[in-house]
């Protein structure tokens, strides 16, 4: 039995929608792109959505549209996908890494004050694994200190905080539609904003600095070729039409995981709580504090040998080779280090079966039991 970490759901109606665009002759910047943008905005109850070719491109354009410049400081969690840091570095800004709250795996608002300097211009609020970050507290702090807020919802489309979807809290939110996401366009991303001015600039930046309705050869500022084709948008539009069904399905799978793993004393799960809805990008579990990074990696390998793909998310960004000889700042990252060494992400996708979940859970139980047994290397070392 081989169980992948993620698997996109592509139905016959998805294929038909993509085929229809191919036959139309309007492959880019056509009506399907505009329809997808309108559908995204409507789903999030926001006025403007701008689709682009990736979530990382969306992050870069958000920084550029908010006028984050060279040597400006941007606060973010080190425990996040490296694409966030890459976007900041691409704008020659300086990342300032802060710690996470172990309960949410997201930026801890209490860490923001210590990270401030006279050069701080923005905060990137990441909703990792589809688990909402404490947006109200983070945004309140940012407004108090006149900081822009970029809401990275690339892993969290459909997640909610107190009935409000993530993506509605920051100045600009970013989305991603890679095949492992809740909905996929193959490759792709989007930006969401309340501001008509920001939306217009984002549309210009994604299209080589051109402005809508003007001469095609007039470029108002240096821009990029970050457009998303109508072919990709056709797939995204179809998948977005059933997103609530997808989220409900993933929530059912997550509940099944939680009920089976609750008896495992060496593994902790993450619960949504009463005011949050998680849009499960993957299913993260935390091995107990007696486990080391080597133990976690050996558990990962044991599952791999059984055909179960799991994820060792995230290697802290501040420790990545890409940061060598680069300017950045770090606050205390105790939880980031500890959690990154013990977190393991389990498979979750629409086609995952209860039988497969039982196999994953029993295999995980067997692997962690062998690592914590009295005769194991770890047990002897401790």
CATH fold topology of the largest domain:
Aspartate Aminotransferase, domain 2
Shape, per Cα inertia axes: globular
Mean pLDDT: 95
Strand-residue fraction?
Answer: 15-25%
Helix and strand string, N-terminal first? HHEHEHEEEHEHEEEEEHHHEEEHEHEHH
Annotation, overall tally of beta strands = 16
Structural class category: alpha/beta
Q: What top-tier CATH class of the largest domain fits best?
A: Alpha Beta
Largest sheet: 8 strands, mixed
Spatial gap, N to C terminus: 35 Å
CATH superfamily of the largest domain: Type I PLP-dependent aspartate aminotransferase-like (Major domain)
The tally of helices reads: 13
Whole-number tally of structural domains: 2
- What strand order characterises the main sheet? 1-11-10-7-6-2-3-15
Low-confidence segments: 377-382
State Rg.
Answer: 21 Å
- The appropriate CATH architecture of the largest domain is 3-Layer(aba) Sandwich
| Percentage of residues in helical conformation | 25-40%
